[in-house]
Amino acid sequence: MNKKKISHLNTKNDEIHIKIPYQLSYDWDYFLSFQSKRLIHSVESIDGITYSRNIIFNDIYGKFRIFPDNKGFNIFLSKNFLPVLPEILRQISSMFDLNSNIALIENHLSSAYPSLMIKKGFHIPGVFCPFEAGVRAICGQQVSVAAATNLLNQFTNLFLRVDQYGNTYFPLPSDICKDKLSKLSTMNAKRDTLYLFAQWCLEHDIKEDIDELIAVKGIGKWTINYIKLRAFNHSDIWMGGDLGIKKVIKDFVSFDENKAIPWRSYLTIQLWSHL
């Protein structure tokens, strides 16, 4: 798992319990606060310090939950993920940005922006699935976080996947049909973009072809960068077109985001935290 060591593995009962050491700074409260404003209620939840969500991975259905302790992170996975354990741990590690040297990044940002208060332990808050990240981005185009999250939940509930036990999952691109999208409380243009994005995902590898998304009507650089940032844990994404970022940096006489290279994603996260 990309240089991460598993200090403990237990397959008792119906869950796999993995403990991953992590000694660098991690502001878990920030992640919980960030995600709580963007929760898909039928798919993910926060209970105390524990984040949980249902996932589909390599056609396997199940769930995971994660919470920190003073030595790292505890991850509990459905036991049916055991055949793909290394791969799914890489995905979770990416989602929670567990491979970054956050101390090095924070030192770089503090030196580059002495007038900006750099908060400790702010990691990239990821999204488990690239398709979900794209839907989140489209729902969030030119609207508030609250409005975007409301639309996201509407979308998810229209196309929910349900397993034999009644557990609910974020839909796959193949689940999206144009007729149901008419029920979304949004503009026709945004409904069309959601449909076209789903169709595009059926024909492309989103990770390999991400820059080709620009050809889809209604998708621009901001949406592509959002997917790169939150789904692919890209360290150097500058979300300068974001309304929130624009609001924060207007208070600076001059602001040069290039000083943050190669850590502009973390600069973006820091600026979002000042909203």
TrEMBL record:
Could you give a GO molecular-function term held by this entry?
DNA-3-methyladenine glycosylase activity
> Which segments does the entry list as coiled coil?
none
Q: Which Pfam families match?
A: AlkA_N
- One Gene Ontology term, aspect cellular component: cytoplasm
Name a single GO biological process. Answer: DNA alkylation repair
Task: Note the SUPFAM superfamilies from the entry.
Answer: DNA-glycosylase, TATA-box binding protein-like
Q: Tell me the domain of life.
A: Bacteria
Q: Which PANTHER family match?
A: DNA-3-METHYLADENINE GLYCOSYLASE, DNA-3-METHYLADENINE GLYCOSYLASE 2
- Stated name of the protein: DNA-3-methyladenine glycosylase 2 family protein
Which lineage do the record's taxonomy fields give for this organism? Bacteria, Pseudomonadati, Pseudomonadota, Betaproteobacteria, Burkholderiales
